[in-house]
Amino acid sequence: MASKVILKQKAEEVKGIVEKIKKAKSVILVDYRGLTVAQDTAMRVEMRKENVEYKIIKNRIMLRAFNDAGFKGFDEILQNPTAVAFGYDDAVVPAKILADNSKKLANKFLILKGGVAEGKILDEKEVTALAKIPSKPVLVAQLLGLLTSPMRSLAVGLSEVAKKQA
């Protein structure tokens, strides 16, 4: 009787995680062994500010959730203790926060393992590459700078011509 209740609870947990995977723009997996409580807490605070949910979920449950969500091939990634970051607003933010914290710790205690972003399965190298992409506001600012640059150059050029004729 007790085992049926436990199985039902686990099935509900998997179902909830599947919903989070489908809702999230990115899901990043990380090996967190060796982090101190203070380091973990500081990282969690940073993630909450960016609407990133960071949890430690058992590997078997996470594997079943990925399979149920349609993502296969996480057997190798989900071997050692794994924490999961669900990014709901921006696909880059969870990877960037985790990678930045990994650099602060000299890559000893926080190791990027893989994940999913925008429906694509990512390996460790792809997550690292994702972390290097500027955030959406920075990209928008860069684009606006590129768009206004030719107009600014034209205005300066016309101004110089007008000054020479006067």
Offer a quick outline of the entry.
The protein has helices at 2-23, 37-49, 59-69, 92-104, 124-132, 136-165; strands spanning 26-31, 52-56, 83-87, 111-117, 120-122. By secondary structure, it is an alpha+beta fold.
List the helices and strands and how they pair.
Elements (H helix, E strand, L loop, with lengths): L1 H22 L2 E6 L5 H13 L2 E5 L2 H11 L13 E5 L4 H13 L6 E7 L2 E3 L1 H9 L3 H30 L1
Antiparallel strand pairs: 1-3, 1-4, 2-3, 4-5
Mean pLDDT: 86
Number of strands: 5
Name the shape in a single word.
Answer: elongated
Spell out the helices and strands N to C: HEHEHEHEEHH
Strand count, sense and barrel status of the largest sheet are: 5 strands, antiparallel
CATH level-1 class of the largest domain: Alpha Beta
CATH superfamily of the largest domain: Ribosomal protein L10, N-terminal RNA-binding domain
Neighbour order of strands in the largest sheet: 2-3-1-4-5
Characterize the structure shown.
The chain is of the alpha+beta class and 166 residues long. The protein folds into two domains: 2-133, Alpha-Beta Plaits, CATH 3.30.70; 136-166. 59% of the residues lie in helices and 16% in strands. It has six helices and five strands, in the order αβαβαβαββαα. The chain has helices at residues 2-23, 37-49, 59-69, 92-104, 124-132, 136-165; strands at residues 26-31, 52-56, 83-87, 111-117, 120-122. The chain has a five-stranded antiparallel beta sheet with strand order 2-3-1-4-5. Strand 4 (111-117) and strand 5 (120-122) form a beta hairpin. Helix 1 crosses helix 3 (59-69) and helix 4 (92-104) crosses helix 5 (124-132). The protein is elongated, with a radius of gyration of 22 Å. The N and C termini lie far apart (95 Å). The model has no long low-confidence stretch (mean pLDDT 86).
